[in-house]
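Render this sequence as a predicted structure.
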Amino acid sequence: MLGAKVKTGLMGALVAFVGIVGAAYAATLAAPTERPVLTITGKIGVTNKDNTAQFDRPMLESLGMVAVETTTPWHEGKVKFEGVPVDKLMKQVGATGDRVVVTALNDYTTEIPMEDFAKYKVILAIKRNGEYMPVRDKGPLFIIYPYDSDPELKSQTYYARSAWQVAKIDVR
């Protein structure tokens, strides 16, 4: 028979082990079941394929969608965008950089300070006016700032950061 001290010690070790395994499990990312639409690389701690974090559309949507209604220089009138808060997406992959470089399908790149995501509530839009955005019309993913929420956002600086046809995000 094991003594009370040994049992307590073993129980403590088991609890610690379960805590470590649970923390490691929490830092995992499922593999996409559909064609990936986004690959995140760079200074990230949570990956699912070859040191990258790949997401299909359902994975992005499962992170929680929010809506932003705003005018843009590319559309007539107010447009409703729905997507994932980029700040939340960066937390999901354990991003530790201070900026990201976003690359579009046509190889357009733009650099965005990481602080923009929380400060301005930037989203990675998946839908426009309730519809998924096709590649031929700025989809499947579009970096959207809530331009109407702050006069500062209605400038070329923020419009240039608003990449469409987003395919990759590199955290630096």
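Summary. Strands lie at 38-42, 53-55, 66-71, 78-85, 99-104, 109-113, 123-128, 131-132, 142-144, 166-171. The radius of gyration is 20 Å.
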